[in-house]
Amino acid sequence: MAGRHEDPPPPSIEDTAGIARVAEPPVLIAPPVRGLWAIMNPPGHARLAFDFLAVDERKSPYRKASLWQALFRALPVEATHAWGQPVFAPADGVVVTACDGMPDRKDFSLIRDLLRLMLFGPRRGAAFSAYGGNHVILKCGDIYPLFAHLRQGSVAVAVGDTVRSGDRLGQVGNSGCSLQPHLHFQVMRDPNPFPLFKNLVPFVVTTFHRCRRGEWRGCAESALANGHHLRL
Under a CB-based contact definition with an 8 Å cutoff, are residues 136 and 93 in contact? Predict the structure, then answer.
């Protein structure tokens, strides 16, 4: 079961409206994926919402392709390291949401898909699946981890199922508002993902290795940040 990590929290955090509120101690969870990953916190995301991109030792998310090709060409989803990677429960819990009916886009081109999203993104009032695609939400004690953009047909749990930390939930896909295959992960204080990014809980990860200046070093009960290159 997820527990509260007792290290002193930062003095304060801000919600998406910029209003300071009392900081809360981060929860301690296991990694939701395994292997080599880059952590991204792109523009438009809240500080506590992260995208996991599977990468290689050079921190490239692509197989035999470059960033320039990903920007300007249409590449198949199989050209990424993330496509089809397993996703795991980070704590013991119960499944409260499981969506598996959204199609994956089978190719991607970052500039094309960003323009498409800006021009033809989800309409106001759309269900969360229009944003997060296939997704799972767990209840783990008093927190609710959310896993989004899962591969259609891969979700291995149903509402009401009990899961243990490390149980397989599904696979990384390219469903919903996804520019390329990746896992969107966040921890919420209630099971409703709306308003987007406004009910997030800080978390730290039990253990991982981080690459800095070409050297891998072990970390324990540490937070994630944009640009991290990790072995989970």
Answer: no
- Residue ranges per domain, the chain? 51-200
- Residue 22: predicted pLDDT: 54
Separation between Cα atoms, residue 133 and residue 231, nearest integer Å: 26
CB 173 within 8 A of CB 100: no
Around Cβ 231, how many Cβ atoms within 10 Å? Answer: 15
Per the DSSP assignment, residues forming a β-bridge with 75 are 108
Asked if 144 and 152 count as a contact pair (C-beta separation under 8 A), the reply is no
Its CATH class, for the domain covering 51-200, is mainly beta
Residue labelled with tokens 């996991």: 52
- Residues 80-123 have pLDDT tens digits of 999 999 999 999 999 999 999 999 999 999 999 999 999 999 99
